[in-house]
Amino acid sequence: MSKKKKAESIVREIRRKTRKKYSSEEKIRIVLEGLRGEESIAALCRREGINPNLYYKWSKEFLEAGKRRLTGDTKRQATSTEVTGLRQENKQLKELVADLSLKNVVLKKSLAGTDLDEAE
What we know:
Elements: H1 3-18, H2 24-36, H3 41-48, H4 52-70, H5 80-112, H6 116-119
Helix pairs in contact: 2-4
């Protein structure tokens, strides 16, 4: 790899690592400012440091989500943190059921005075 290509690769990697992540609240704020029309979209994008194409993508997503909500479609995609949390809760509940089932078998055994095969 030439020195120039290596330098370009390093610059791309740095840009990727320093790219700002916008929260949904920030995206909504920016889109609403654009919809107000108090300044041009180009000026808004320059001020916020985003590409106008990104603004229009967010705007389209925002308006489509609003349209779906107004038509009664309240279904939404789960976030990865929600999915992770639900998986953890599911695991804990399965462990609890297994533990309670085992305790139930042991209790039946102790009350009946028999071995495990007869308690089941």
